[in-house]
Amino acid sequence: xxxxxxxxxxxxxxxxxxxxxxxxxxxxxxxxxxxxxxxxxxxxxxxxxxxxxxxxxxxxxxxxxxxxxxxxxxxxxxxxxxxxxxxxxxxxxxxxxxxxxxxxxxxxxxxxxxxxxxxxxxxxxxxxxxxxxxxxxxxxxxxxxxxxxxxx
Amino acid sequence: xxxxxxxxxxxxxxxxxxxxxxxxxxxxxxxxxxxxxxxxxxxxxxxxxxxxxxxxxxxxxxxxxxxxxxxxxxxxxxxxxxxxxxxxxxxxxxxxxxxxxxxxxxxxxxxxxxxxxxxxxxxxxxxx
Lengths: 152, 128
Description:
The complex is a heterodimer. Chain A is of the alpha+beta class. Chain A has helices at residues 14-29, 39-45, and strands at 49-53, 57-63, 73-77, 80-87, 97-101, 106-113, 124-128, 131-137. The radius of gyration of chain B is 19 Å and the shape is elongated. The A-B interface holds A 1-2, 36-37, 39-40, 42-43, 48-54, 56, 58-59, 63-68, 89, 91, 93, 95-104, 115, 127, 129-131 and B 24, 26-34, 38, 40, 42-47, 66, 68, 70-71, 73-82, 105, 107-109. β5 (97-101) of chain A pairs antiparallel with β2 (28-32) of chain B, so a sheet runs across the interface.
């Protein structure tokens, strides 16, 4: 159901590889009871999402602090939703010395499979305080139909 | 009319300090140039008036609580982050001027600018 596309970062780093491995292991073994990646490293490579569904559609909240809304590219193909963009954590001045650098930087890309096809024309995206909320209404043709049972 | 206003006010108060079960240490970038120190904090979901900044005995404390609303009438498909409050503290050096701290919140990022004291700024000495 859920597919991740981790975009390669600019430079290869052993720590990143180990973090990615730990992340994957946590997912496989469901560590910490209900498995969810810790904010620290997961958000460095792909934005975290919360998704809800109902008969009417799907609502997805994506954590994207410090992103310019125009830099986010949302596309839907069939039942695949893809988010692309870049975190702009690079300062405008270059003569800064870094004492800590934990915030995500660079490009991200993430795809998920939606449980049903959505009505492209009625998709609504709002960005507020660093959270992107996507409202994806289910297409009318795919809504469940009630079938009445007649007594013979 | 008056009661309606009072109601929204009390709602804002409860939104301001919701009781979160989870507390996160937010991701930060700490940068320094010759005039100032800059701290950038990722606090997604937090509005300007939900941030609490304080300096005590040279320790800068950041507290922030987002007002996050789940969509109604939906059931969760998957949940990768659970809303919670953010908290982090920094020990400031004596070379910065804590009276001139400036903070801005934009797109879920808190940027704190702390200027250095005049006497510690690098000065160019002219050779006569």
